[in-house]
Amino acid sequence: MVNLFCTENRTERNESMEEVFDYEKLRSRMKECGFSQDNLAKSASIGRTSLSLKLNNKVAFTQTDMRRISKVLFIAAEEIGPYFFTPLVQKTELKGRGG
């Protein structure tokens, strides 16, 4: 028996909300290890344009991408989460406050 409530919620979420992640920790690790986007793309066998699109939330990272990048940047499997799955929090300006 299919729970229609769960099915409707899942469909609604997928249509109205794309997940956007903050890759700042990944970018910091790249810098720490001396990699530019171009160098990392080559070392991880990922297209340069593809990596740029992924780092800018235009295209999602695949599991293979994450595994390859983690290997190049010496990120342990159990530590992948903060590098690839930190939700992006939009910064908003506080209006009406001095400063």
Automatic annotation (TrEMBL):
Entry-linked PROSITE patterns: HTH_CROC1
InterPro entries: Cro/C1-type_HTH, DUF739, Lambda_DNA-bd_dom_sf
Entries under SUPFAM superfamilies matching the protein: lambda repressor-like DNA-binding domains (SSF47413)
HTH cro/C1-type domain boundaries: 26-80
An annotated Gene Ontology molecular function: DNA binding
Top-level lineage group: Bacteria
Protein name: DUF739 family protein
Native organism: Macrococcus brunensis
Lineage of source species: Bacteria, Bacillati, Bacillota, Bacilli, Bacillales
